[in-house]
Design a protein that fits this description.
Structural class: alpha/beta
Strand content: 15-25%
Strand order of the largest sheet: 1-3-6-7-2-8-11-9-10
Shape: globular
CATH architecture: 3-Layer(aba) Sandwich
Largest sheet: 9 strands, mixed
Helix content: 40-55%
Distance between the termini: 31 Å
CATH class: Alpha Beta
CATH topology: Rossmann fold
Number of domains: 1
Order of helices and strands: EEHEEEEEHEEHEHEHHHHH
Radius of gyration: 18 Å
Number of strands: 11
Length: 276
């Protein structure tokens, strides 16, 4: 992808100790994408800029006739929340550069914390309401006090690892990965562990035939939204989330395809993406 370049045009925001930048790590359940979109709408956030990826085939999502460019930033001065919209998964080879651009802008605007939302399969026999976290040593106590659960022992790879490494390697702000358990990812994990799937194409086909029919994981998205509510100390109602999530069902197939390619790439390296 030598000809790919990122064009960044983002307005500055007032320096505020509350400012927090939020991203989604797109995965098959689409819970993180739905959560960030819901926050943008429910908090009536203002668009402040975009990151365009030049050198790849352009893609625009359309919802109710409205074109939505996939990589845009929104800001709520009332809450100090900045949200990065990512409708379409970013190609893995340039994901680190994308994150670095976002974090560089955040540093320039005095943002002290970057948070990425994602999901994982259940750690127990059934799905819980816990939201797990991975962060730096100095931030553990504050997250625990909010009711989040530290992820005990695992290896994080893929886009989640790229995010954590990009933030923590700078040492200028805290980086937090928040994960909600997802029934959909639990199903995926069971399929992969069964050994009955011989390639990522098999995974893609089966997931589209099953998960793709049900749309985004709303229960996991609710857990992520409640987690953000705690971080910004604002009560966010989720009564309209089911209707909201249905608008993004068409994106599930794209997310599944990108996730399955990630499995194939990590298997080639002898590692396993964070599914647990």
């Amino acid at each position: 992808m030598d000809n790919v370049r990122l064009e960044v045009k983002i307005r500055s925001v007032p320096k505020d100790p509350r400012n927090l930048i939020l991203l989604a790590c797109p995965e098959p359940s689409l819970a993180s994408v739905v959560a960030t979109e819901y926050l943008i709408d429910s908090l009536k956030m203002n668009e402040i800029g975009a990151i365009r990826i030049r050198g790849v085939e352009p893609a625009v999502t359309v919802i109710d006739g409205v074109a939505k460019l996939p990589y845009r930033l929104f800001y709520s001065q009332e809450t100090g929340l900045i949200v990065v919209r990512q409708h379409i998964p970013i190609p893995i080879p340039i994901y680190r550069e994308f994150i670095d651009k976002v974090i560089s802008w955040a540093e320039e605007n005095g943002v002290s914390r970057a948070v990425c939302l994602s999901t994982m399969s259940s750690l127990g026999p059934s799905e819980s309401d816990n939201v797990y976290f991975v962060t730096d040593e100095l931030t553990v106590n504050s997250l625990t006090s909010l009711g989040f659960t530290p992820l005990k022992e695992t290896i994080v790879v893929g886009v989640e690892a790229e995010f954590i490494d990009a933030v923590l390697s700078r040492g200028t702000m805290s980086g937090v990965l928040l994960l909600a358990e997802s029934k959909l990812l639990t199903s995926i994990n069971n399929l992969v562990k069964s050994g009955r799937l011989s390639s990522y194409r098999d995974v893609t086909y089966i997931l589209n035939q099953t998960i793709g029919k049900f749309g985004p994981d709303v229960s996991a998205a609710i857990k992520l939204i409640k987690a953000v509510s705690k971080l910004i100390n604002v009560d966010i109602k989720t009564d309209k989330l089911e209707e909201h999530a249905s608008k993004y069902s068409f994106l599930v197939e794209k997310s599944i395809e990108e996730w399955a390619r990630g499995i194939a790439a990590e298997e080639g390296k002898g590692t396993t993406p964070l599914v647990l």
